[in-house]
Amino acid sequence: MSPGRSNLTSRLEASAFRTISLNHVIIPCRWNLDSAKAALESAVPPLDLAAYKTARSSGNNAQALAALQALPTLNNFVVPPRDFGSLLSVLDQTGKAFQYEIGNPLTALSMARFELGIALYAPIRVLLRQTSLGGAVFEFDRPIDTMGQFGNSRVDKIAQDLDRDLTQVLVQAAGWKEFGDWDTRHSKL
């Protein structure tokens, strides 16, 4: 490696890299993957930005904001979800896994107004996958951790609410009443 390249690498590492700590959540499902998928898709509607786009195209920002405010708390940004299971077949592997992007444009905007870097993490990616034992799990990184890296108390409050709402909808889609209701010794993880 040339001296110039090494110097550049050192400067990048000193100024552009930050280590963060986050909690990765795994919620085991009470039922099979197809049932959990149907429950999630029933609970989290597809994102519908038609009213917002109409208002924006006419230059009516107040109406555009009202359209965002009228959206459900959580929306599915990618319909249908990304089918990672079919991607695995390219490598002659099998498995069922679906990736969702779940969130709310107004929630993201509310955080991004204070920290634009939020755009890297909103909406939240959620994975629903089949386990090797035939069960299913939801997985995601907690929004309070990914958004919390910016050290902004206004963002943290919004991220805590998003964290709570997302966790609640996933727990219910997995067939549970509350977080932690499952006993992993008896589930098909």
UniProtKB/TrEMBL annotation:
Domain of life: Eukaryota
InterPro entries: TT1751-like_sf
Name the record gives this protein: DUF302 domain-containing protein
Organism: Neoarthrinium moseri
